[in-house]
Specification:
This protein has helices at 56-65, 69-84, 103-118; strands spanning 8-10, 14-18, 27-31, 36-40, 91-94, 100-101. The protein is α+β, with helices and mostly antiparallel strands. The protein has a single domain (8-117), classed as Metallo-beta-lactamase, Chain A (4-Layer Sandwich). It has a six-stranded mixed beta sheet with strand order 1-2-3-4-5-6, covered by helices on one side. The termini are far apart.
Length: 124
């Protein structure tokens, strides 16, 4: 299944980009003036050092892997759409941790999420 994303422009230079996958109604918000993309829970966030009692990354990973395969396919489509338009963004600000600034870091976080979708690790 391929999900086609299209944007809607709003007052103040914001664009709403449908990016379903985490949920069917998920959107990302692009502030066009500075290229910041607020992506919500579309990407995993596993690159930060966190305190011993912070299980955010584990929770995000478990949530990602426990969803139906159809929803994961839709999420991968949304991620591929964002990846194809990275030149538009200066940084991705996910719902947890981050931000991921610069082309290399944005490609890394999107690529890592796609990899987990396609090659899921074993959960305890």
């Amino acid at each position: 299944m391929i999900w086609i994303c299209s944007t809607s422009n709003f007052i103040g230079g914001f664009s709403i980009i449908p990016t379903p996958g985490h949920t069917m109604g998920s959107v990302s918000i692009l502030y066009q003036k500075n290229g910041i993309l607020y992506s919500g829970d579309l990407t995993i966030t596993m690159f930060e050092e966190t305190s011993q009692n912070d299980f955010t990354s584990e929770l995000v990973l478990y949530t990602l892997l426990s969803r139906p395969s159809e929803l994961l396919e839709i999420q991968e489509s949304s991620l591929n759409y964002l990846n194809s338009s990275l030149q538009t963004y200066s940084g991705i600000y996910p719902g947890h941790n981050g931000p991921y600034k610069g082309q290399e870091m944005m490609m890394t976080i999107i690529g890592a999420t796609i990899q987990v979708i396609n090659e899921p690790p074993t959960l305890p």
